[in-house]
Amino acid sequence: MVRVSDQDPTQIPYTLVRSPRARRLSLHIDPERGLEAVVPARIGEARARREVEAFIAERARWVERSLAELRERRSALGTDGRLVLGGLIPYAGRAHRIRAGAVAVISVAGGEIIVPEKMTGSETLLRTRMTTWLRRRARSVAEQMIAVYAPEMRVQPTRLRIADQSSRWGSASADGTISLSWRLVMAPPSCFEAVIVHELAHLRARGHGVRFRQIVERHLPDESTRMRELQRLTPALAAVR
Q1: For the whole prediction, is pTM greater than 0.85?
Q2: Could you give the CA distance from residue 192 to residue 185 in angstroms, rounded to a whole number?
Q3: By C-alpha distance, which of 56, 52, 87 is closest to 186?
Q4: Are the C-beta atoms of 33 and 20 separated by less than 8 Å?
Q5: What CATH number has the domain bearing residue 163?
Q6: What's the domain range around 152?
Q7: How confident is the model over 118-138, as pLDDT tens digits?
Q8: What is the pLDDT of residues 90-120, one digit of tens each?
């Protein structure tokens, strides 16, 4: 069961997660939910809250510093992550305002994402259509990059899968499938490119050993720098809803 604390003596909100796999109390920062406290499921609710709040109080300095860093990273792209009219979301590494216009399909111009007026009657409809559009744009960009790099790297992906992967930006399976998060389309193109090269390299070398690194660096020498930048922007990209 997951619930948000409403009685925190440190005045720091947290999400309480009771997990059957947890062996002890732990704290960590989730890019979307902020501070999470994970406790063993066998511990009762009242006891869990007492122990969590005491634990947070002991580590308040670390918690406050970590949450401040999260806020800073979330604002790295200057966006609020809201898929609604007036919302400001990242697209291709830049902040774009969502507004309605006399257009037939969703389009991008001058730092704005313009949506047809007929989509604006329902926030749910707008969010669904925006997410679908971002997924399609992610696929289109990925296909273009793969068309450039796959022949150069002497690999042949069998399938491209666009999903909302929560634990990683991309993966490559043994059958040649490349899986990517649609949220990459919101990142700077240089970061998107780094993930493409990274995953294509996995079609030639499993794991992250010397051979893998040699392949990656032969085709994109600054891949690791770009991946670090993507990691820095992860909270801002993950916050888009």
Answers
A1: no
A2: 7
A3: 87
A4: no
A5: 3.30.2010.10
A6: 131-238
A7: 999 999 999 999 999 999 999
A8: 999 999 999 999 999 999 999 999 999 999 9
